[in-house]
Write a structure and sequence with these properties.
Trs120_TRAPPC9; Rossmann fold; 6 strands; single chain; 485 residues; alpha/beta; Trs120_TRAPPC9_N; Trs120/TRAPPC9 N-terminal domain-containing protein
């Protein structure tokens, strides 16, 4: 699948690369708003942070009513880490832009509260180019330990005449009210007791997602009103020096600008819940970009078209559902739903114009990957596209096509850390397991385990735990008795 002209259109490796691959992406993530949920400080236990992250992550599909009364489904994807280098690719694919930030931290004193606020504001500066809105969730001391805190010395900058801060939340009455956020802290603060039920947390986060949507919608409307023949040229980070000194008024470059902006509008429509409009934009952009041989952005238009079509055809595509291969389940036959309500007859969906057929989705993904392979700096984009295409093939029960996409991942030459290499082979093993390729899954796990044994640094206990987990999976996949010597 790798193009024979790979790398000939790319610049040197010193150019900006997307340096951190995200192997967990699904095609549906093209329609999602990206939100970072970050732990600040060391007071809040990791277990508590994980519990709240899982609770926040359940709000992944929000229904919003727009100004015309139309109800839109807005998808949200939450991550625990997000590198700025990947955020810089937001013009190329808008789902890579970090739009929201939620910080969680615990404090026992005014000084610790000030430090959480400072770190949160520094994160806002870090992602300032794309960030729309943010929230900071504080877990403070309760009345149970008020006596142990009452004599604590107040931090500089706060005085006894400060107005007591009241919680915005109904269930935070136990929080001590003597603490206040700094005057330069502009983020909406939510105060909770970590042991309470935090009953209005979902309400507050729904309001937060609504605010992200309305900012995105205003930007979409602003872009849609621009005259396409006068728009500026959108660029991937490594392309910036390639267009210096070129005549941007030439016919081909004007079409390039138009095609890229049209594809960009497709991205914005998809994230705004306007799937049918996004399909029209992607189709139009693909025709324009193909006419000027703009391969990188043509690949992105094909990928966007495939992602939007997959969202229409497979709105409930599930994560990590194994596909069992057997003689009675033919290649390409539809998968059986794992839902308990599968006997209920669902109403027929109204066909959406420009939606690709299941076969064309994989075809367009294949073409997009070939176009990406022509650019060395797009290696991670190509890798992620392979994983997304493989997951759609799994959903369609096309095991052999899924295996082809996964095999292409191995051939992509990337500069990765040892942990990223291990994660890549673990993801490959997981997908090979889902399509029933147990031996390939076992090979990938063995490779990951070997790399982990050789390169892992840290306490011996954790090293053995991680290697042991991988080896147990390997034994199960190879059907070797655990007691065998």
């Amino acid at each position: 699948m790798r193009s024979s002209v790979s790398y000939i259109l790319s610049s040197s490796t010193s150019e900006p690369n997307m340096s951190h691959p995200d192997y967990e992406q699904y095609s549906h993530d093209h329609a999602a708003l990206l939100v970072l949920v970050r732990l600040i400080g060391d007071q809040l236990k990791q277990k508590t942070y994980t519990k709240f992250f899982d609770r926040i992550a359940k709000l992944s599909n929000i229904r919003v009513t727009d100004s015309t009364g139309l109800a839109r489904n807005i998808l949200v994807r939450y991550v625990k880490e997000y590198p700025v280098e990947n955020n810089d690719w937001g013009d190329f694919q808008t789902h890579r832009r970090l739009l929201g930030l939620i910080s969680l931290g615990k404090y026992d004193s005014q000084q610790e509260l000030n430090e959480i606020c400072r770190v949160h504001e520094s994160l806002k500066v870090k992602y300032n180019n794309t960030l729309f809105d943010s929230r900071c969730i504080f877990f403070g001391p309760t009345k149970e330990n008020q006596e142990s805190q009452i004599d604590e010395k107040a931090s500089p900058g706060s005085s006894s005449s400060d107005t007591d801060t009241k919680s915005e939340n109904a269930d935070s009455g136990e929080i001590v009210d003597k603490f206040t956020t700094p005057s330069n802290f502009k983020t909406r603060a939510l105060f909770y007791d970590e042991s309470s039920t935090c009953m209005d947390l979902e309400t507050q986060l729904n309001e937060f997602i609504n605010s992200l949507f309305w900012v995105l919608e205003s930007k979409r409307l602003e872009r849609s009103r621009e005259k396409l023949e006068r728009v500026s040229l959108l660029l991937a980070p490594f392309e910036k020096k390639d267009f210096v000194g070129l005549d941007m008024e030439s016919r081909n470059n004007k079409k390039r600008c138009t095609g890229r902006m049209t594809k960009h509008l497709g991205d914005l429509c998809l994230q705004s819940g306007l799937v049918s409009e996004s399909l029209a934009y992607y189709s139009q952009a693909a025709e324009t970009l193909k006419s000027v041989n703009d391969w990188l952005w043509l690949g992105a238009a094909y990928e966007g078209l495939s992602a939007a079509s997959a969202l229409v055809l497979y709105p409930d595509m599930q994560r990590n559902v194994p596909l069992h291969r057997n003689a009675s389940l033919q290649e390409g036959s539809p998968r059986k739903s794992s839902s308990a309500s599968q006997s209920v007859t669902l109403p027929a969906r109204k066909p959406v114009p420009n939606t690709l057929t299941p076969e064309d989705i994989l075809k367009r993904y294949r073409e997009a990957i070939i176009h990406y392979s022509k650019y060395q700096n797009a290696g991670i984009v190509e890798t992620e596209a392979c994983f997304k295409a493989a997951r759609i093939a799994v959903e369609q029960n096309h095991a052999l096509q899924a295996a082809t996409f996964l095999q292409n991942v191995v051939y992509i030459n990337l500069t990765l850390s040892e942990q990223e290499k291990i994660d890549r082979f673990e993801t490959l093993a997981d997908l090979y397991t889902q399509i029933g390729f147990a031996r390939k899954a076992a090979f990938c796990l063995r490779f990951a385990a070997t790399s982990l044994t050789i390169h892992r640094r840290g306490p011996k206990f954790w090293k053995m735990m991680l290697v042991g987990t991988l080896m147990i999976k390997l034994i199960i996949n190879q059907s070797i008795p655990a007691t065998a010597r």
